[in-house]
Amino acid sequence: MTRISNSQLYCILVGLLTPMAFLQIPGLLAHLLSQNGWIAAFIAIVPGYGLVLLFNYILQHSQHPFPYLLIEHLGQPLGRILGFIYVLLFLFLTSHSLRLFTDFTETNVLPGTPISIHIGVLILALVLGIRAGIGNLARLMEIIVICGLTFVLVLVLIVILQQGEIERLLPVGSLNYNNLAVATGTNLFIISKLFIVLSFGFWCGNKDEAGIVMKKAMITYVLVIGMTTLSVLMAFGGTITSVLTFPTFSMVTLVNIGNFIQNIDIIFIGVWILGIYGIAVLTWFMACYSLQIILNLHDYRFVAAGTALLVGITSILISSNILELLVLTQVFVPVLYCFFFIIIPILLFLLILLKANRSSSLESKI
Amino acid sequence: MRYIKNKPESKPSPQEVIHTDIPASLDEIRSQLDTLYQFCSDIVIREFVFGNPETRGLMVYFDGLVNKDEIENNILRPLLLDIDMLDVKGDLTHRDIINDVKTRIISPAELKGVKTWDELIRRIGSGDCALLIDGYGEGLVAGTRSWQSRGIESPDNEVVIFGPKEGFNETLRFNTAQLRRRIKSSNFKIESFVLGRITKTDVIICYIKNIAPDSMVEEVKKRVNGIDIDGILDTNYIKEFIIDDNKTLFSQVMHTERPDRVCGQLLEGKICILVDGSPMALVLPSTFTDYITTPDDYYTYYIPASLLRLLRFTAFWMSLLLPSLYVAVITYHHEMIPTALLLTIAASREGVPFPSFVEALLLEAMFEMLREAGLRLPRAVGPAVSIVGALIIGDAAVRAGLVSTPMVVVVAATGIASFVTPSYNASLVVRILRFGFLFASAVLGFLGIMIVLVIVLLKMVSLSSFGVPYLAPLAPLNLAQISDIMVRRPWFVNRSRPYLEGMRNQQRQGNGKDEGG
Amino acid sequence: MLGSCYDLHEINDAAIAQNFSLDLLENGQVAFLAQTTQPVPRSETGETQPSQNISVMGTGRTAAEAARGMFLHFSRLFLWIHANTLFIGENLARQDLTLISDFLMRNRNLRFQTCVYLVCGVSIQDIHKAMNERGFAITSARGITQQIETQAEELGYYTPLANIELLERMLTPGIEPALPQLTVIKEGDKDRIVLQGMGVIKNNRLIGKLNPEQSQGYYYLQSKKKQGGLISIAWSDSPNAMAVMHCTQFTSNTRPFIQEGKLNMKIDIKCELQYLETIGDDNIYVPANQQRLEYLAEEKIKQQVRSCIIQAQQLNSDILGWGLTTARYQPGWWEDMAAQWDQVFPVVGSQVEVECILCSDGLSRESFRFN
Question: What is the ipTM, given to two decimal places?
């Protein structure tokens, strides 16, 4: 497998975590915690660190990348079956992110264009991406993440300087703890996508450093979401933010530079499409690569074209409208994340720990 | 059986002769020369007799490729007239005549013995003259090359304001001399190859040992040696054989006519290929950023040079995207244009019969035609045609209401921006891609542009030039080097060379190894 | 290929909206009136032709229905996104602003930054008629946006309100919107659009107005742009003595405090002033006169602010956002009292502190005297 550098791994992880969350999470946090939504973003750093440790432990105590890692720890039939379920999960997540993006663009930019056209065009670009191979995708992700983070930074700064009123964050505290827990959990589900490090960690220059890279990616995610939530709240206040469907997008509409650069929604969507491309191509890659391992195929690249139809049809049939899709996004998808990216890794961790204890006690007996 | 008769012993064909050794008998040599150069009116074969006892000799060369004075003064005169004045005393009996001729009688600076027709033919084809002596199966080839060639001129395609103005010309030796004059180190290596089954073209590969990675040098030699073609007339022939990916628009090897630029690249560990008969040098590996930079950047003070480089980057993006962005904005994303400007654009489009996309496409196509016409027409007429085309057709089209004024401005601005790109190859790619972006913008607006951009980026990151990623140092990211891309890093900060896999000496200033020589 | 471009709209097939106005008709229908500027191509000599404004009206049971209704008699697609003013008719404002608020919030083609005005005394059709009479720059909707921004800087009378602020104030407990009002006055045979007072909203209905003095007080308390304001005072015993000053910049802070179980507001305003004009014989450069001028300016601003507070409390509309301020700085108190805010607000005490500093005098060292 092609080697990737630590910075490429960082970009891959940031590219997977951030773009979709950038649009959805600030609104969700404001909905749950009003003007205190930003606190939940920063609090997520604590359980997020726990997840980093969890994934790093599994990574360091495994010999093979995911999904072969499942076979390594769970044995032949169970590991292979679970691996296949993960293939389906990754394909579903690819379809879901594609559909979310296309519905968003259809609602806000090109309402007349059928989603099948959006999806078709994106799938073409995605298939080309997977066929280019992981080494080239990693390079592409570097460009995407640099552009994306720069755009986010500039956007947040402009909004805070032009529209920000710090009073809108008051009163700080007086949190509803149930909502805080839900908000932190929401962030944690997103951070759980670091799961893919179980594959990518094996291909980076030094597996031992994957933990540090994960930490950096997690902190970047927290900073991006925290700062975006802050700027949205400072621009709109808690009440309006919690009402808006995509407050990050609405925030972009406020930008006005010199009464000339204005209404830059489409620029935002243009940069955001890069991020969505990153998410979709990485999850799809994971599906293809997992399928290669599970079915002992020659090359994952060939699987891309084969699964394209499946991804395309799923993303069209996944829901009949954006309302259903949002429910799916806020209820069903977090459950999937929770089960596949948090619970199963915890079980794996316990299994590895148990095995390690057993072998060390055997060694001591000998 | 009358149909079966012994075939008469036929003369060998030129192809058979060429692979044989030079015979010892001068008659046989003459006969084989006649076979080889039948119907070649420019060949000069001069037989003569010299020494005591009389020895037969033969001189062969191509008219127009040699310096006749040198042949007369340094070869023929010593053999025919001065031989008596030497202590050889004319009596050559029992002596190794050819050795005496080589070492004691004739006096060209460059002299080499050859034993095969193949090499002799190649040498005389390159402008050397060959001396063949009866009884010896060996020819003496003297370096007498001299032909009319273009002088050293300033390259038209790579104009610089400051810095050297010299360019390569079509004579390989002049070109290597220009390089050697700039890099005097003994580590500067120039390796020769002969390519082209018929043209027998001299090709050289030059690099600086200890700076250029050995593995890369070996790879280049391997790829060049692997070329089997009847003729090499320009460096592009070689380029298409040796690049990593030949199914792409993007040039992975840099062309340049400037010796100073080649030297700059050699000092960064790159390798140069020169071909006899072509003023274009190939520099490899080359990355995308090489096409945005110009030697002028390094001959100008770093602050203006950096600003100019930023300007060039802006112009590059403008030349690539401006028409498509304009079409996207005025057909899909009207909200982005400030209202007063939008009113102006709307007013100018009132009555224009074409959709914006068609309008842009027509104007772009027309502009490209004018540009090509300007290049191909004689110099005296070209600029006039461009100006007449641009001004009169443009003005008439606007007045007739066929196109809108802002579109003319956009297309003209794009044209000007594309001239800012220093490399013709890069500018060509941009011109082609521009149409792709234009189509995408007409179908999906800005989204279409971004999707095509992703595909183009994907192709670019997939490319490599002799193992060096095409978008380096942006992808893969190299923070140390990227500062010399966006701006021109001052020389006092530029302490190390851009990293190439296998480079042994990356240090440019201080603490570096002695490059030797 | 262009046939498959579902969302492609050529600019010359669209109408660039400058303004849209909403009102309630007598039959209960919503009227939607939009102004667009007809682009006029330049002449061959390059001369600019005056552009033509036209207004198109549609009616319907809701704002969205009325907006779409326009296309029964208008062919071009409106680019709403360029409309930077929204006029709300008095009928609608008195009836219920929530009739249009969802339309304003949900519609992706309407911008949050659009300036909102209340039309008082005349109908929205009258305003449009007056706007369409003159050229693009002066009295069109775009001109009115410039007008309110310029008067804010030069006079400091009326505070602009953006669409998003209107929605925020309608949605957020503890704050109510106040909108600048427009009306039309006759000048000979011409109609002129004039800014006149600010409409006060309470529970999504127009319930009263602020006069220019109260509006100036409101400006000091609520303006986002902390500059602008004209202060004219008679400053000496001399009958004609006048000093006109311009507020170059100011700060204002409102903080709640509880005193003897009662909520009070402490309002601090700090102004930097600049002479625009002085008339009279006294020398303004005498320190005592300077202090007197500053004192008089402070009193003037206090009076304007108090007048605004009294009017707001009389109308029982928290246009000053005191409830929200309390929620931010006294969250515990607010939690207990939020439900009774309507009863509490009219009796909230206030302390207004103003500090003025004369900073600049222009080009002349003393008042002009005829010798």
Answer: 0.92
